[in-house]
Structure formats: structure tokens, C-alpha cells
Design goal:
heterodimer; A: Rossmann fold; 3 domains; 6 strands; B: mainly alpha
Chain lengths: ~475, ~120
Amino acid sequence: MEQIINICYIVASILFILGIKMLGSADTARRGNRLSSLGMLIAVVATLLAKGMDYTWIVAGIVVGTAIGAIWAKRVQMTGMPELVALFNGFGGLASLLVGWAEFSRLGTAADGAPPIEFTIAVIVLTILIGGITFTGSLIAYLKLSGKMSGGQIQFGGQHLINAFILLAVVVMGVVVAANPAVGMANTLMIAVIVLSLVLGVLGVIPIGGGDMPVVISFLNSCSGLAAAAAGFVILNNVLIVAGCLVGASGLILTVIMCKGMNRTLGNVLFSGFGASAGKGSGTAVEGEMKGVSVEDAYYVLEAASSVVIVPGYGMAVAQAQHAVKELGAVLERNGTEVRYAIHPVAGRMPGHMNVLLAEADVPYEQLCEMDEINPTLPATDVVIVIGANDVVNPAAGEDPSSPIYGMPIINAHEAQTVFALKRGKGTGFSGLENQLFFRPNCRMIYGDAKSTVSQLVSQFED
Amino acid sequence: MVAKRCTNALRPEITDRFMELILLIFTFVLAAFLGFELIAKVPSQLHTPLMSGSNAISGITMVGAILIAGQSSGSLAGWLGFAALVLATINVVGGYMVTDRMLGMFKARKDNQPK
């Protein structure tokens, strides 16, 4: 039986590898995802064949988990998807932590042929540490993304020092427990390790600004893979090690790719605290003032425009405006205007967030342009409509070396003849930075809810 | 299994344990390199589905939870395993379904394209 289970694990591992590979290309992505879910099914069913199993709680756990997961996945609005992925990721981390804890509590009963107990305890501590950080870190990311917690950075003096100290404390306690596993204090110390790991996740993510949450989620996703791999070393299970490590490594690469999109390094995102420099004075003071414009006036400009580029951002997601935006694109096209959508790689709260939303609204694929493709054409564009995007069109990124986002590639909306920026109010964006674009002479603000503003524009066209 | 053939006359049981561990570490290292190589050039619109899909795979810890929940029911370990199983199952099922939903939208868009 043992052999059959392991052969199934090999098959599952192959399916995971193929799945991840296929997820990387548009034509095969959906099949890749289904292939990897088939791998998971095989791994789970094979595990059920293990000897000495009591199925009552297994069945109960799977039924409850499936019901909750399925309902959540079905109900979530596509705009709320980033925070849901963060939440799922956190659950995965917590599950690994609990597996580590459970193994610790039944240490004495382990079967013969187990590796040295010092090794087992070391990987249990590692599992709990990574799992705990993943869990609370993802929870904070979830709270920040869903707006239940301020997206700003929460910082206090000596933060890095405290984090380093907690990490050191966890390592020391781990060593103590590993050296004397039988001592009565071991249980208390393990609880302390769990608590400190959870605290470390919170402290690690609160200083990171909401704008960097996509990178954080991707990084924590990589961590949850490593936590699963560590759990695999605890229970000596190769499918956990293979799948966990695959996710850990590929997640890390994806994280680095995302950082490059913002022209930053991972270390910079995780440790510099985006606001650290912003706090000292958010770049050069902005001159000029924001000028508003009415929907009617904007309509006349759009009506006369021969080319329009729409730059969507998170504000479009919040206002659920993607369908209205698609309508606007359609009426503009009927009016003989060339319409394109400029998608910044990190627009929204997740890379590709805008692509998903616009795809949901049935925007034609060939109208979606990536940043590098659209930038050279912007000076010849009549109107750029910025819908709820902020940092990704802030010219300070290219011009103001004192700005915290200096060096980030942006969509050069300011080079267009006219810019309309749809915005809820005069406040700063998610990153807390003043956007110099809004003060440019060629920029006009249209205040109000993005969805109703866009709908009003559409009805102007239809009259 | 491989380890059984090793003949360290002095401490055979230690050799057994270490061989098994070494094989697992070997697996880990190879998987890490594979993971790094798998993701080379991914178009940015696929970053979110890729993240979400690989997040579902990290729910593989479900396998560990099943083993514990099934073999230690009634004890503290059993309860912890049960809780882990529920959480990991949410991660797996929810993760795969949400990813499929996202990718489904890309698919629908493709079908609408002329030619």
C-alpha cells in the first residue's frame, strides 16, 4: 500500500509541475490550473489509503472546508479577489503551523525509524515560524486591501530591531526545546514560539504600505509554500516537500518579477517601509492647483477627440466601474474614436488585476495595451482618461529624485494633449503621495464616484 | 528502502535515518531549482492567476493534516489536525475555484475575438 501511495505522489508532483508551467502562458493557463487540481485530488485520495486511519474527522474536515472554500470562491466579486487570495494564503500558512504543532504534541508516539528528534523539532519550529508569519502577515494584508485597516504604514522606532530580537528569541527557544525535548518546559516554550511567530507576521507587514501589498501577498505565498515543505520534513512526506518547495521557489521568482515592475528590490519593499522617505517630506512640494471640469465639458472634448487612452486603477475596481467603462469605450468607438486601455503592470491591488476586471466586462482583447507599448504613442494621443489610478501615472516617478516612487516606470499620461482624472476627492492616493499629474496645466479633475461619472459621460453620448 | 542496503556495522539505525533524510533534502533541492526555472517569462496579466493557482498548491499541507487527523483522533494532535484540515481544504478548494473563475474570463474574451 505504501508503494501505491508513493507512486500516486509522484504522479501528483508531475501534475503540479506541469500545472505551474502551463499557468505561465495565456493559452494553457486554465488547463494548467485544472491539471494541478487533479494532482491535488490524486494526492489527497492516495493519502486516504494510509493505514490506521479513522475517517470520521477526515470526512468532516474535508466537507466543511470544501463548503466554505467553494462558497467563498463563488460569491466573491472579482474586485475583491486580491484580498480573498490573501486570506486563503493565510489559511494555508495556519494549517502548516497547526500540522507542526500537532506533530510536536504527539512526538513521543512517532513510529520507529524516525530521524533524530533534534532534527524533527528544528523543522517543527521552522514550520511554525514560517506558517505563523504567513498567517498573520496575510491577515494584515487582507485587512489593508479590503480597507478594514488603514493602507498607510504603521511605524515606530526600533521596529527592525524588535523584529530581529523576536526572530532571535524564536531560534533560541527552538534550540532549547531541541536540546531537551523531554523537559517539562518544552510545551510552554513551544506555545511561546507559536505566539511570537504570529506577532512577527503582524509586525513584519504593518510597516509596509498598501501600495506594496501585491508584492507582499506574492512573497507570503512563497512563504506558505516553504511552510508546507517544512511540514513535509516534519512528517517525512515527499509530496509536501516537492509541492511546497515548487511554490516557494516559483513564488519567489514571481515576487522578484513584480518588484522589477516597480523598479525596486524585494529587500527594499519588505524592509525600507515605503513611507520611510515619504514621511520626511513627500518629494518636492507641488505647485499649481487642481482644476475641476464638469461632465458636459469633458464630453465635448471627448466627442472631438480622435484617440483616447483609458488608464484604469484600483479606483475603478472599488467603484465597480468596469462595465460602465466598457460602455464608454464602446460609445467612443461608435463615435469614430480610437480607444485603447493602458494597463500598468502593478495597477490595482494585484498584478493583472485590471486585466481580469476588464476581461470580466468583455473589453476587446486587442484594445488592452501594456505600458511599454502605449507610452511612445501617448504624446500623439488626444485624451487620456485616468480612472481611479494614481501612483502609476505620477510623473514624479520620472522627474523628482526626492520622491519615494522615483524610478518606478509609469504610464506617461502627462504627455497626452489632455488628461481627465476621475477621482473621488482631493485626497492623496493609496501610497499617501501627492500626484503631480493632477496639478499639470493639461489635466482636469472630474470629482465623484467613478462609476456614476462614467455613466453620465455615456448618457451624454447617447443623447 | 535504499538505506536498508547500507551496511554501517557500527550504528546501522543512524545510517538508515540519515539516508532517508538525505533523500528528502535531495528532493527539496531539486524541487527548488525546478521551481526557479519554471517561471521565466510570464505576461503580467497572468501574474494574479499564477499567484492564486500556486497558492492553491501550497494547500498541499492538507495531506499532512489528513494523516494527523486520521491517525490521532481524540487527542490534542487530532483536534489540531482537524482544524488544519479544514483550513487547508478551504485554501485548496477556494484557491483552485477562484483561479478557474479568473482564467474563465480570459477564455470568454478570447472566444469573442473575431477570426
